[in-house]
Amino acid sequence: MSKDPFNRETEAYYSIGTWTKNNPGLVAGITTRWGGVSTGPFHSFNMGLHVGDDESSVVHNRQLLASSLMMPVESWAAAEQTHGNNIHQVGEVDKGKGAELYHTSIQDTDGFITGDENILLTMCYADCVPLYFLDRDSGTIGLAHAGWKGTVLQIGPKMVDAYMERGASKSSLEVVIGPSICKNCYVVDDCVIDKVKKTLEDENNLPYNLKEEGQYYLDLKKLNEKLLVQTGLNAEQIHTSSYCSSCHNEFFSYRRDGGKTGRIMSFIGWKEKKR
Length: 275
What we know:
By secondary structure, this protein is α+β, with helices and mostly antiparallel strands. The protein has helices spanning about 15-20, 55-70, 150, 155-165, 190-200, 220-230; strands at about 5-10, 15, 25-30, 75, 85-90, 110-115, 120-125, 130-135, 140-145, 175, 185-190, 210, 215-220, 240, 265-270. It has a single domain (about 5-180, about 220-270), classed as CNF1/YfiH-like putative cysteine hydrolases. It contains 6 helices and 15 strands. The strands form 3 sheets. Strands 1-2-3-15-7-4 form a 6-stranded mixed β-sheet. The longest helix has 15 residues, at about 55-70. The model has no long low-confidence stretch (mean pLDDT about 95).
């Protein structure tokens, strides 16, 4: 891949350039905060139905994205994300869930996998790590939401396990780690670092540094990468974005914005598999 796996497509979203170029019919990317109709702290392209924004504005924003991607909201699947590690195998019955009404979201879920066409997997973020999965052999796609809680609960490795249960080969998997808070912006305490330590097999090149007593800079992207490598994936199969949701004002950031903010959305789906 190029220096960063994400290419700017419009004011409103980035695409995973190499994936979409090499796989005609695949859409995959992440939204920005620009190009929508939301106001106040949610200005302007807020994708979160659960953050206190005017619901009709969020639905309008989602309709704008759907039109741009040519993937109607009726084909979307959305989750009630709980910072856990539950994974849902998405099928036809799930189309439209959570797309326009939050209470219809797929419950208590932070990972999606599907082999079906004409379904757009979606997750929302405001600093947490988006994980995108693609099985080059079957075209099976996946998406996960990895905050620090989901990360130490091994949502990434559990996604890999779910692919193995579907008969995939680890050598055919590719993972993209999307825009999220960077190591210079993300400070956590001893409680978090203790949980991080328990997940790591390799004590070399740790993904955190001491800031001051009881405070650490945590590289959440690097931690997810290391956990995926522990599953047996090669580093070459994992591509990480350099974009930081906190440093770059084009994204919503829970930490930078003091908690009252919108959500960007990751998405991946096949319009048609041309393979």
